[in-house]
Each structure stands twice: as C-alpha cells, then as structure tokens.
Amino acid sequence: MLLNQFLLLAAALFCIGVYGVIVRKNGVLVLMSIELILNAVNINLVAFATMSGLGGQVFALFVIAVAAAEVGVGLAIVLLIYRNRRSIDIDELHELKG
Amino acid sequence: MLGAISAATTTFDVPANIAFGLLAAGMIFAAIRVVTTNNIVHAALWLVIVLGGVGMNYLLLQAEFVAMTQFLVYLGAIVVLFLFGIMLTRAPLGRSDDLNNNQRVIGGLVGLLLLGVIGYALIDTWGADKLTFSASEVAGGTSTQLLANSIFGDYLIPFEVVSVLLLAALIGAIVLARRD
Q1: What is the mean pLDDT of chain B?
Q2: A50 falls in which pLDDT band (50, 70, 90)?
Q3: Is A98 within a domain?
Q4: Is residue A32 part of a domain?
Q5: Which of chain B's residues have a Cβ under 8 Å away from the Cβ of A1?
Q6: Is the CB of A54 less than 8 angstroms away from the CB of B146?
Q7: Would you call B137 an interface residue with chain A, using a CB distance cutoff of 8 Å?
Q8: Given CB atoms, is B87 within the 8 Å cutoff of chain A?
Q9: How many domains, in total, are found in chain A?
Q10: Which among B91, B106, B108, B29 has a CA at the least distance from the CA of A31?
Q11: What is the pLDDT of residue B136?
C-alpha cells in the first residue's frame, strides 16, 4: 500500500467537508460536515504514525475526544438557537453584520 | 520471525489494496451524499458509512485501538447525538428543499481548488512512497501495547488535560441546553 492513497483519500474527504460547510445552512448539517473534516485529519495522523512513532495515533485519539466535546457543545448551541428563533437556519443569524 | 511476518504482509498487499479501493469509493460516494442529500436523516445515516469506513482504514493501517475507539465513540455516541439533535430541532423528516444556501457554485469551486492544490502537493512530496509500518516493527510488541505506553508515558499530561476538557464540555452542554 502506498502512503499517498490514504493521504489523497483524506484530502478528498476534507474538501467534501469544506464544500458542506460552505453550502449547507442547517446547523446540524454544518456540524456533520465538520465531522468529515476532523475524520480526514485523523486518517492523515494515523497514516503518518505507521512511519514515525505512535504519536500520531495518540493525537488521533485526542482528536476523537475533542470532536466528541465539540459535537456536544455544538448541538447544545444549535438547540439553544432553535429554542430562541424556532429555526436553525444559520444564514438568518446575521446580527453581527453591519 | 520478523522476516516471515514482513513476507506475509507483502503477500497481503493485493487484497489490502482491493479492500482500500472499495472502501475509498464507498466513503467518497457516502461523503458526497452527506453534503448533497435533501433528507437530513439520510445525511446522518450516510455519515455512519463514512465514519465506519474511516475506522476500516485505521484497521488497514494496523491501528486497531484507534479503530475500535472510532467505532465506539463515533458510531455509538456521536451519530446518536446527531439523531437527537435532528429530533429536538424538529427538522423535517422527509425531503426538504431549504437545506442549502445559494453558494453551490462557489462552494464547489473552493472544494475543487483545494483538492487540486492539496493533491498536487501530496503527489509532489510523497510520490509512490510505500507504507513501511517501521514504527511498530522497530519497537516490538503489538501496536496497542505501544500506544498504551506512549499515552501513559510521554503524553500523560495532555491525556489528563483532555479529560478535563471533556468534563468542561459536559457541564457546558448541560448549562446551555437546560430549561430554567
């Protein structure tokens, strides 16, 4: 197996995730796209860990833990937005725009 | 002994490549469906396929413990959390046409441009380098043993910090989401 096949797969997943973050306007779907991006980074970390020590696998575990925390807080925020505005359309949240 | 093991791994190269090809095709198709489907519950279910495929890739990379953590944490916990989020925000369960904004063209351009730049840089840098699995062969022992040694040795303090982060996130999510 080549190293590059894993890295290119991760690059493709990352770019699909970026497309999702730009295009989606439902808050939950944006969080799902962020999960795609985090998983792409994890594939890179584990692929490089095969060559140069297991630090990459340790960091992949840390990224999984941080992603779990991020989803928990992110969904709580989306829920709060829904409760206040009866919609989770994040394009309507433009109070900060001058 | 080591020679026999490495000979065995070279003979497993072709099936591993076939498995990788099937996994990669399925994962990319599922990921595209996650960001394009008009049904929000289907997006969560396609996400299951992508996350499971990522776990299978960890198995191909001989990272068994990370793969099992991926299955437990992502498929067991995070997808269920997403389904709860969909349920609690009363998302339309069938097809709905207002999940996307009108930035499709620019989003596609950004994605393709990014893929081109990253792909060029990767092919230019790593070319046809083969995976060697040198890290676990040099140190000896299974990769889970080595992983435990490095988590509870070199990375002990970051590990404790992550546990504090999880506690803070738990309390923060409860404080944000409770009704009072």
Answers
A1: 86
A2: confident
A3: no
A4: yes
A5: 13, 16-17, 20, 60, 130-131
A6: yes
A7: no
A8: no
A9: 1
A10: B91
A11: 63
**Domain containing residue A43:** 3-92
Predicted TM-score (pTM) of the model is: 0.89
**For B51, nearest residue in chain A (alpha carbons):** A39
For residue A16, list chain B residues with Cβ-Cβ distance below 8 A.
Answer: 28, 31-32, 34-35, 111
Q: ipTM value of the model?
A: 0.91
Q: Is A97 inside a domain boundary?
A: no
Nearest to B115 among A15, A32, A65 (CB): A15
Over residues A15-42, the mean pLDDT reads: 93
- Is there a domain that residue A52 lies in? yes
Nearest-by-CA chain B residue for A73: B173
Q: Which two tokens stand for residue B2?
A: 């080591």
Which domains does chain B possess?
Answer: 2-100 (1.20.120.1200)
Two structure tokens written together for B58? 């960890």
Token pair listed for B136 = 């676990």
DSSP A95: T
State how far the alpha carbon of A5 is from the alpha carbons of B20, B96, B129, B135, in Å. 9, 36, 10, 19
Reported as a single tens digit per residue, the pLDDT across B47-102 is 999 999 999 999 999 889 999 999 999 998 999 999 998 888 877 777 887 888 88
